[in-house]
Amino acid sequence: MVMKKIALSAALTTVLALAACNTVDGAGKDMKSAGSAVSDASGQNKK
Q: Fewer beta carbons below 10 Å: N end or C end of the chain?
């Protein structure tokens, strides 16, 4: 019974960790996109 709880906790932790990584990755892409838009609008487009 204890092993089942440990296994379930480990699985849940893994799923939540992977979801958090994808959330942070998506937020980073959004911030990069917003920064590019501001840069383009200001005329300081670096290539």
A: C
Q: State how far the Cα of 25 lies from the Cα of 18, in Å rounded to an integer.
A: 11
Residue 9 in tokens: 């906790």
What are the tens digits of pLDDT across the range 1-47?
889 999 999 999 999 888 888 788 888 888 888 888 888 888 765 55
Whole-angstrom CA distances from 20 to 2, 7, 17, 43, 44 are 27, 20, 5, 35, 33
Q: What is the pTM of this model?
A: 0.51
> What are the tokens at 39?
């840069």
CB 44 within 8 A of CB 35: no
Rounded (5°) CA angle 10-13-15:
110
